[in-house]
Amino acid sequence: MLMNLSDFLLELLRQPGVSGAEIQTRDFLVPWWQPLADELLVSPIGTLTAWRRGTAPPPRQRILFAAHLDTIGMMVSQVEGEFLHMAPIGGLDPRVLPGQPVTVWAKEAPLPGLLVAPPDRLLPPENRGKPVPLSHLLIDLGLTARQVARRVRIGDRVTFAQPPQMFGQETIVGPGLDNRASIAALTLALEALQGRTHTWDAYFAATVQEEENLGGAKTIAYELRPHVAVAVDVSFATGPGVGEDKGVPLGEGVLLGFGPNIHPKVHQAMKAVADRLEIPYTIDYLPTHSGTDAMALQIAAAGAATMVLSIPLRYMHTPVEMVSLKDIRRAGRLLAEFVVALDEQDETWPSWEDEA
Ligand SMILES: [Zn+2]
After folding, report:
1. Is the pLDDT at 116 greater than 80, yes or no?
2. Mean pLDDT, the chain, integer
3. How far away, in angstroms, is 350 Cα from ligand 1 center?
4. Which one in 67, 90, 154, 163 has a CA-CA gap of 20 to 30 Å to 102?
5. Is the peptide bond before 350 cis (omega within 30 degrees of 0)?
């Protein structure tokens, strides 16, 4: 079954999956990835990996693609009568939180709630007229204190309940597109590789805990020891406050990372494939770290030659992230063709000494 990209993503975005609580989302992904892989692997901390075997005689070269499955969110930190206090998981923007619908993933059943702020004039003087810090926000479940005490536990995860939706044919909006847009790209790449052969072993990993500690990427790279590892993530698209110097236009192509977190040979090779396929791209200059799973992929075990492929996204780390499906399709196609293009590389590729 070939997936319908928007239907698949809308359903994927409805799954919870705050860092450290990704099991439900992984279970959603399994039936999609199972028929596209020779084998599915689940790591001790929960990363799901689809393995497509290469055709070269073993020991084969290995490439790993990593897209994080987890999202930002919150955790209940205190129950106070009818209301809940919460702590952030990942980077949250307090300016956009008051009034947001949320889901509290209580043990018995998920509960709908609202993030609410106290009246401005009742805040401590230093907080008035400013975004309310997370420590002063509360969750209202519309339940009595007794009902809340019975159902909610400290540690319950909280996700944004803003419903994902399509704006027109090609633009999707919703919480968690960072980084489920890239999970969709990996799924498209797996589909595109059906019926094709490649000499390298190709691993497609939905990593856990990226928003907190890059733990999924670090451990799967340690386990699989890839020669080449590519983080697939989102990056800033142009929009309010993000000019052409800081982002790239939505729907006009992918970003190819370049900098110390990127192996120059892998960068060049991916760029050559994009050129051949006429996939539009912008070079994403990353002079420090990349802020992605590639940071962990590069230095796990003895290290791997890394690359970062990014999909432009607006309103990062808010409940209304926005991505163009066109860019997701481009990323998926580029990844699949990159695997096949590796056939032309010999087993010494790539080493830093190779750098042209
Ligand atoms: Zn991300």
Report:
1. yes
2. 94
3. 26
4. 67
5. yes
Integer Cα distance of 135 and 87 in angstroms? 7
Sheet holding 62-68, edge to edge: 39-42, 48-52, 201-207, 62-68, 228-236, 305-313, 254-258, 281-285
Neighbouring C-beta atoms of residue 127, cutoff 10 Å: 16
Using DSSP bridges, classify how beta strands 228-236 and 62-68 pair: parallel, antiparallel or unpaired. parallel
- Amino acid present at 126: E
d(CA 154, CA 194): 45
Tokens 């994080």: give the residue.
68
Helix (H, G, I), strand (E, B) or coil at 51: strand
Compute the distance from residue 90 Cα to the ligand 1 centre, in Å.
Answer: 10
The predicted structure's pLDDT at residue 122:
86
Q: What is the average pLDDT across 107-136? A: 91
29 CA to middle of ligand 1, Å?
18
> Per-residue pLDDT tens for 303-341?
999 999 999 999 999 999 999 999 999 999 999 999 999
Cα distance between residue 327 and residue 171, in whole Å: 10
pLDDT digits (tens, 9 = 90+) for 338-353: 999 999 998 788 877 6
Half-sphere exposure of 277 (CA within 13 A, CB side): 23
Task: Count the neighbouring beta carbons within 10 Å of the beta carbon of residue 303.
Answer: 14
- Of 62, 12, 330, the C-alpha closest to 164 is 12
**pLDDT value at position 353?**
66
Tokens standing for 138? 């509360």
Query: In angstroms, what is the span from residue 348 Cα to ligand 1's centroid?
Result: 31
Distance 69 CA to ligand 1 centre (A): 9
CA 152/CA 210 separation, integer angstroms? 26
Name 97's Cβ contacts closer than 8 Å, sequence gap at least 6.
Answer: 115, 117, 132, 134, 137
- Longest Cα pair distance anywhere in the chain, in angstroms? 71
| Token pair belonging to 304 | 């791997």
Domains contained in the chain, CATH given = 5-71+175-354 (3.40.630.10), 73-160 (2.40.30.40)
211 CA → ligand 1 middle, Å: 7
